Amino acid sequence: MFVLTWATLLFSVRVSDAETGSSVWGKQSCRLTDYCITLVEGNITAEAGLCVVIPCSFTVPEDIKVLHIVWYKCESTKQRCGDGGMIFHSNTFSDQVQSEFKGRVSLLESDVSKKNCSIIVYDLKESDSGTYQLRVEALPREGSYKFSQRATVSVKGLSQRPTVMIPPLTEGQPTTLTCTAPGLCSGSEPTFTWRWRGGGESDADLRGNITAFKTENVTEFAKRRSSTLSFSPSAEHHGTSITCTVLFQGNVSTEETATLSVSCE
Fold it and tell me: Is the pTM of this model over 0.70?
């Protein structure tokens, strides 16, 4: 099993060693001379609502000019993926991409001549689990090639929780709580909800609270999303709980609850 860390994304995907045919994340396979691909061996695991990177690099003969990179999601019963399974085409004018994947897939390197075929898929659904296959379109046309090797992605339910940061609280002094969403994905914006529960009471809003949403760019493809809650704590807040819920695309949600401790001046 291969668990992709964000270090892979933040510090770029390392291509295979030309001499050994291996790399830190995958193994190089060559079905035809000079047509080689490096993909992850085993499953790439990810969680619904977040995103996943499929690291990939390839080589083609020197006299072949790469025009476009195409990715397919394959049916498990078929040896090759058909055009009906197309999820990405580097030609943005292509109308063959499945509607459910449009706008959810991007290349990590837009210059296809660099032979980096790594993609990132956003707003994941459990139905995105499966195998993915690469095709390179080139000039001359006979130089185009669909690699038989596949990358396997397994998308599970969301288990990661938000991180709630609470500074020291003093009665009557304005303060700000921060809730950071799990993942560093540049897909759709999540929705944040704050709830407060007093002793034995039902959930309620904090009176006079002010919430704000923040997006921090970590890299071109990675963003940190957070929400802040500003209010003036009082003695009634001591020992009560605050819950931050994050809702992602596809009605995927996760939450974290923390206890408030308010001191008197």
Answer: yes
